[in-house]
């Protein structure tokens, strides 16, 4: 057609003549911005504003505007196109597209044409600012009647019930030039807290008060690492201590907040170079008279009937990041800074009793970090001379009056290492577990007196109470109470804790043998013994004069020398990653979940041979860890021998890899005198999952070093627990305790991914948590120790 004018003149009426072809051409031209085709189509009768109903009555202006074709939009306006048609809808989606940065030129033309006054259009000033609109465009929108203080919803993921204004958006985006334009045009620096831009009235209009400029400035401080925008807000009179509230969902209780708390909750990361450090940000806010925390008796107007919660600065950080973040130096320094400033003083009991580790597993490092935090907190907020406040917290931590107490944890789920650490810190700081006054019971009286009928009936129903998880947990709890000095001799209103413990045996109904055995075991634990006293002995101990008789028993027990009731769990972290971190994780996991609870009267001591300078004879064949241990305080070989001599039995944790990975452990045992290693020993292996081989009974992995380690120990005269014979539970030959790490989990242990944990089906695969080879092994190990004592 372009080569022949005659052909062009003949074919053009054919192409643009039919109505369908004409509509299609007009639609295509508007979408692509082809001004020539628009002129041509309108010359043949195409409607300048609308396209046929079969195309849902599309607006030509809308098509051109949505795709940012300024020339096409201007041409259509010039030709008389309008939006003023009843079958054309301009919803929020079109408004958001029009306010995007790539459509800025179109938006100028849109405003110039006078379309801002249309009732069906809702131009969003916050959207223009958020997507990078220029100050000139903001001025143009304000010139065309956009309300500078209008509240608008934010659309997008994780933006449910978020309300903003133009000024709060400019502040949050750190756009100072637009900030100046808005404040000059009358934007309120104080904002309006109570707003509801939704069509339906709701008591839950906003989730966070980000529509208030001072709160938006707090978020900008954390997000952009600058204080200039906050300084401008304060210079214009914004209240740095204005208290608002957060509400995550309609059913949630409101939580009172301040700009300082909002700043802390908005921090996105730690140890980020080039950004404002959290401590510097806090110092800036405190320097401008910001209140560190909300007073406990503060009453927020309008929320009197909703009982709003009040959080401390410490809780804001720990609730968001978890106690695991205490290992981060900058995070811990921020916590310390807040504590030094007096944070958490009014909520210390709540803070020290509310936190748990994610997944329930507590590493040694995490426990050390939490202990450091608790010691700092207690030292700062408790009177060193007056133990009364510490005694109150100790009682709350241990007794059943709180659902997050240790008694509750042991009763229903197992030990809470974090809270055990808190209790030890309180005891070290001077709290008295035996404190009582005015006839009130001691902590031990309360613990001994608490028992739910359901759990007690559950225990009484077991023929072998050692198979009951609740029994094992309570034995561990009572052993802990005995460890920290709980005295069963104190008489309150004529009863000692043992009297209270044995009260069910005085009732008219007859206890089962399991029930009596349970109470007798707990009573013996409180007296520091293992099944020495029968039920009648325990009852007779409490005859008058009670305290004297028990003191005599204590004296008798002190005069009898008994071998140490401890077991050494020996492992090595001087290995390549992930074997080194796996060795630590598995050692701690089996100690707390499988071993300590099953043998409460034996202490399990984890010994890492990497902390000793044992200097293997052939160190060249031993693989090195990723990071060489250069610590100057390595213990000597004599210290190694002394430590080993303290224990009655051994558990050897080693990798199922090549034999060279066991060189250090082999050498550590070889240098010991034979009499020190002739003790009951349990082997515990771990390794990476291998492809399944149907003709080999090695599960789905290879035990490369197992046979050599077993034979080496037997030649050295070590008394290995015989796990290779059939036994209770139906384990066939080869049923040694072992941990298989799945192949995908293995990679996460290398990279520090989500699945880098020990627990569930990963440990002792295909065996339940209450009875498996680890538990069978520890029972057989203790049986070997007890038989050697006789």
Automatic annotation (TrEMBL):
<dbReference type="InterPro" id="IPR036770">
    <property type="entry name" value="Ankyrin_rpt-contain_sf"/>
</dbReference>
<dbReference type="GO" id="GO:0045944">
    <property type="term" value="P:positive regulation of transcription by RNA polymerase II"/>
</dbReference>
<dbReference type="GO" id="GO:0000976">
    <property type="term" value="F:transcription cis-regulatory region binding"/>
</dbReference>
<feature type="region of interest" description="Disordered">
    <location>
        <begin position="618"/>
        <end position="638"/>
    </location>
</feature>
<dbReference type="InterPro" id="IPR002110">
    <property type="entry name" value="Ankyrin_rpt"/>
</dbReference>
<dbReference type="InterPro" id="IPR050663">
    <property type="entry name" value="Ankyrin-SOCS_Box"/>
</dbReference>
<dbReference type="GO" id="GO:0005634">
    <property type="term" value="C:nucleus"/>
</dbReference>
<keyword id="KW-0677">Repeat</keyword>
<protein>
    <recommendedName>
        <fullName>Ankyrin</fullName>
    </recommendedName>
</protein>
<keyword id="KW-0040">ANK repeat</keyword>
